[in-house]
Amino acid sequence: MSIITGALPDSVEFEGKSYAVHTDFRRWIAFFEAAGERDLVGMLKVYRELPPSADTAVALALGFGNGAALPYGGGGKRAVLDFETDAALIYAGFMGEYGIDLCEASLHWYKFCALLAGLGQDRRISQIMELRAEDAGLVQDKARRRRLRELQRNYAIPDRRSAQEKDGGLVRCLGEFY
Q1: Is pLDDT at 169 greater than 60 in this prediction?
Q2: What DSSP string runs through 66-125?
Q3: Residue range 136-149, pLDDT digits in tens
Q4: Rounded distance between C-alpha atoms, residue 24 and residue 27, angstroms
Q5: Do the Cβ atoms of 146 and 100 come closer than 8 Å?
Q6: Alpha helices, H only, 7-53
């Protein structure tokens, strides 16, 4: 389905039954924040009517949320956008580019994501996302590579994982070597 040729979805389908979801962008930002925190209750708040199981509900919601083609990583492994960290820049980008006040606007999640992806390269959020996505290891010039790494540190998305989650990631990573 194309955003310009058909009605935007307002439900998910499972075993022939439709389950209505909230479509406002704020709900979906909260959904992805809850997903990052592994907060099941928070993730399920996108539903008007819940599917039969929590696992099914989460899987369907992820499909709906990711169907909007978020400009997260440009195909890379690292995230280039964080709704909490980048909130003010996203707001400024929408206001400057489209004249849309996100504090007042009611936008379908898919519309929000399309507009976010379409922000011009002259918008600060677009520049920071591009900077985060660039692979410093591929930059040949040492001075430019050093400057890029410095800027990437300055504009890095904070790691909000707990110490236990970070330790678990290290143990899994080390386990791959042994």
Answers
A1: no
A2: HTT---SSTTSSS----TTTTHHHHHHHHHHHH---TTT---BHHHHHHHHHT--TTSHH
A3: 999 999 999 999 99
A4: 6
A5: no
A6: 25-36, 40-43
Task: Kindly state the tokens that stand for 23.
Answer: 């479509």
Give the distance, in angstroms, between the CA of residue 122 and the centroid of all CA atoms in the same chain.
21
First to last CA, the chain: 46
What is the Cα 46 distance to its own chain's centre? 15
Q: How far is CA 98 from CA 94, 103, 109, 112, 118, in A?
A: 5, 14, 16, 11, 10
Question: Band of the pLDDT at 76, cuts 50, 70, 90?
Answer: low
Confidence of residue 5 (pLDDT cuts 50, 70, 90): confident
